[in-house]
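hi! just following up on the protien thing from before. the input was this:
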Amino acid sequence: MPNTEFKTQRGFTLGELMRKPNLVLEAGDDIDDDEDDQVYGFNNRNISNEEMMKYLNIDDNEDSANPENDGENQADSIKIVPCNTSFEDLKVNMTDVTGEGKIFKSVKQVGVGEVVPMDAMVYVQYMGYFEYQDEPFDSSYLRQTSERVRLNKGVLLPGLEIGIQTMKKHEISHFIIHPDYAFGPMGCPPRIPPNEEVMFAVYLSDFVDNAAADTYDNLDQEERKSMEKAFPKAMAVHATANDDFNRNRTKQAARGYQKVVKILESIALENEEEQTKQQKALTKAYVNLGICYNKLGEPRKACTVCRDVPVPNAKAFFTHGKALMTMGEYDRAMEEFHKSRMIDPNNQRIVKEIKQLNERIMAYKSKQKKLFSKWLQVKSNDKEMDEHVKCARELCEELKNNPDVMRQPLPAGLNDRELDCFKQQAATMGLFFTSHERFGHTNYYISKPSYEPARRA
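and the predicted 3d structure came back as:
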């Protein structure tokens, strides 16, 4: 008898639940690190479990639904959806979506823009409940990510797809779905009972009109230069790259942003309005690409794309500063951080990075002073040269053990013999000794293998 078990450590989708005869959940030990950086633009964000719970208040109490209400009783008003509440009672205040009494909707947070078109790629988070149950039978929060789904491909429940196509970006709505549009008369034993009506709380973070974007791939090179054809495709790729970034697939996200840049830069602009629209989108793509490069440990590439940003903003300067700080270019990094702060003076992340950079500069200068004070006491014989070796070793060890720095500048004014000390100690620890020409002057560095050296000395 063939093995029909479907094993997963990352949770399961509704589509998998319907298609797989036997679903086996396995505990995994993968833990995703928290990502401090957020990609820039196009509003593709995750909503927290706590935020969603706020909108699971069935009583429709105006005070509890008011985000400005910070009173002591607010926490008490946040109730898990169907607990002690019949679906029939809820339907009284809901809208019949299809007109046949099988899909009901209640908007908890009003969205913006247009409703989701047919065949769109949607980015949703949801929680699914049975009647009178206070624990969800399915939740995207268990997988700690939003779902990226192409509609009308049989991935979601029919009723859920119909409901989503009535939503707008950033909308949060509840849907009560009849078994005919859910799991049917058979259900999905043992987890889903037969003829079970279900309720979903859904948050739509973003969507892309794939029908428009797909046509781009069938165009010839000249047609692809049209803003009308190219821009929707670029936005579709950008939204997918954002989603990859949020799922910690940074390499895939970087490739996506590269593709966005390529598409946008190929557009034959016809007027100033198109240029403004293109440059705004390019700025977001370039900055996001710089964030990806920083996360991938490629600060030189991050610097390059940040310099290419057509309309520099606080995020661009900040991302450039982080790359320069990783490269040991402390003075230039500080310049970028201050540019960022001038544009966004209340951003605490910028203030925090400036403080950390100041601490790093002070530590470097202290080390440099200590280094020179020792060397001034050293005589020129080989025996006393051991002190040079010790100082060089300390600086190399400090770089190797610091995960936040990939390259460390060496003090200016070192002679050939002193530079040899660093070269030897760097080689011993698996580091590189590099040089870089700037304004007719040679600067020397020690760097980690993952850093792309300008030129090995």
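The radius of gyration is 28 Å.
The mean pLDDT is 78.
cheers
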